[in-house]
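Table S2 (text version). Query chain:
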Amino acid sequence: MRTRGLRGLLAADDLIGAGNVLARVLAYGADPDGPGLTFDTPVDGHPAEHPLTLGQLDRMVDARAAWLHARGVGPRDPIAVWAGTAADMVLSYLALTRLGAIPALMNGKLRPEIAAEYIRRLRAAGVLADAEHTALLAGHDLGAPLLGTPAEAGTGDPAAAGTPYRHHPEDPVVITHTSGTTGIPKAVLHSHASLFAATRHLLTMPQAQGTNRILNALPAPHTATVLMVNQALGNRAEMFLLSEQNGERVLDAIQRWRPDGVFGFSVTWAELARCDLSGHDLDSVRLWFNTGDCSHEPHVRKLVAVGSRQTVTREGVRRIPGSVFIDGLGSSEMGHSMFHITHHSDTDRYGRCVGRPYQFAKVAVLDAEGNHLPAGQVGWLGIDSPSLFRGYWNDSVTTYRSRLRGWYLTGDLVYADDEGRYYHLDRAVDSVDAGDGRRFFTALSEEQVLAACPDVVDCTAVIVREPDGVVTDVLLELAAGADPALDRTEAVRAALGPEVGATLRRVVPVGAEDLPVTVTGKVRKVVLRERYLTESPS
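Corresponding structure-token output:
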């Protein structure tokens, strides 16, 4: 079947959702010998980076579903999955949803005590963990039995899998978790319909260049990877999934696998920006797609300068140097990026502009009472979208605290311009009320420093309010060869502007290893604030 016709059928299918894309694609006659998925580790006798056909992928999922069913797993059973590879995560997700169970995907980098507490709060019906993570759970009270490893699940009999579960649109389909910037991650629940809503919309649109051969550099347990797997299956695209997302690993994969699109988080682009990209063959890349936190201008500019893209000229369609970077703002709770803006080498709309909302999303800038604010005024970002999560699992208090007058409050502070574009200033918890109606923003401050200091590849602003007033520390990660002894204080102060600059206490060169980060690489600014409040200002 032609991909274009299949995409239309899937978009119009009332039965399809995040729990059964693989089965529905095959039901519509997709070629079993067509592309399935490619993993970076061996799985079921298939070597690493050996592409699986759609039919092979389906049989692997059936084997795991049969094995899990034989151990009592059934519809609406929450099953925690803790493993270190993309193959274990994705295949477990596909198998559990085939049974109607609810995979709770956990980042392999969680500390054991946090992972154990997270599983206990899930009130899971079972735990599927690889050998390494099973050992880490030893001695912890999980409140749930260990079922075995994903590799053991692969030994099931595909013929015993039975008929796939038929999901209702509001059936719970997957639990992912937040980054855990303040401690135990929040468990984010999506339904069969909610986590397919954005994909359904995209299937009605022309398929974008850079989405035929995708390198997935997103964390495998994250909502974003679940989305991308389903989009790739629906588009009949090739996808190579990485288990590690560090910059060198991504660059190596691009050169060997030659994708036309690379999907990831802003932390990965920051790592790539630290590298000398001229020494790498990145010509195959047409598209960089960012989700999660929006990206910083210097990182985007470095990426769009490499690769190539197709464009329409007077002579017809031509491939020209320079790639495209699609930026936005998303989270596990949003179910997809809510905004999009396209950058290439000639664009200059930065300043933390995240662009306009997708057609399926309604957004608003709100005050503390839920009233709409006009263009130019900073307020809380409110979202109303069919892609929104259904709540925090076993935590109705936090679920309802995040809602205001029908809007989901993301925790971000934004403003809109007169043309309907939105600008992200900061996470509310990282901003500081400076008094007299003023608020200082860490993310915006970082953007300003990076734009003004070319020998700085990344930075973190720590703004705290002390009894005597607001103080700001700026931590700089320097480019290779930059002089760490050079005093950059006045350059940083000027970049911050007169109000925040007046609060600057110190500028500290640091290494990436000095920064406390979450399992997805986000800097834990809460920890930094506590640390720098207790240290001397030397």
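Notes on Table S2: The chain has 16 helices and 27 strands. The two ends are 67 Å apart (CA to CA).
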